[in-house]
Write a structure and sequence with these properties.
It is a single chain. It contains nine helices and no strands. By secondary structure, the chain is mainly alpha-helical. The protein has one domain. The longest helix has 27 residues. The chain is globular and about 50 Å long. The relative contact order is 0.26.
């Protein structure tokens, strides 16, 4: 259960207030077609998270379990720092004539590649060794966090305290990173 729940919760939390969630909102405002946008996000997230989780599994044979946990701690630290840094609205493919599904899939594939959520998925892949579960859980986490932005459109930014949520998530990731690092180093 932890192999699913932890990557799911981390991915869902990491995306709150992030550029991917803002991109989801911008795409919803542009296309007003929630289902194709969510399907495009699901496709892109599944590709990115599968690559990340599989890469993490490849690390399992090269590093010790303690090093894998330390790698995960660094992923959480990266998420903490990235959550504190201000972001601007991402490019949402305004000039692309691909339609809601393909624009969503292509823009999410590009924007999520190398993002903090993908880095966390690598860490969970290295720790758990079960990349399909990590990939599926992380994909669902990304999709869950982007769904409110797609469904609410412009009201998403106007009604929710996105900056407060983002900074709170960053603080939580900092605490989790510290706990995982201390555990990995055998200090507790």
């Amino acid at each position: 259960m932890d192999q699913f729940l932890m990557p799911f919760a981390a991915a869902a939390l990491a995306e709150w207030g992030d550029k991917t969630q803002i991109l989801a909102m911008l795409l919803a405002m542009r296309f007003a077609k929630p289902l194709p946008i969510l399907l495009g996000i699901a496709l892109a997230a599944s590709i990115n998270m599968t690559i990340a989780a599989f890469a993490g599994t490849l690390l399992t044979g090269m590093i010790t379990p303690e090093a894998a946990r330390l790698f995960l701690a660094v992923g959480f630290l990266f998420a903490a720092v990235a959550s504190i840094i201000p972001i601007s609205d991402p490019y949402s493919g305004e000039k692309w004539k691909l339609g809601a599904f393909f624009t969503s899939a292509a823009s999410f594939l590009a924007i999520e590649f190398g993002d903090k959520t993908q880095f966390i998925a690598v860490g969970f892949g290295a720790v758990s060794g079960s990349w399909p579960i990590v990939a599926f859980a992380s994909t669902l986490g990304v999709l869950l966090s982007c769904a409110p932005a797609v469904m609410m459109g412009a009201a998403f930014r106007d009604t929710l305290p996105i900056l407060t949520i983002r900074r709170s998530a960053g603080f939580l990731f900092l605490i989790v990173s510290s706990i995982v690092a201390i555990n990995a180093l055998g200090l507790i």
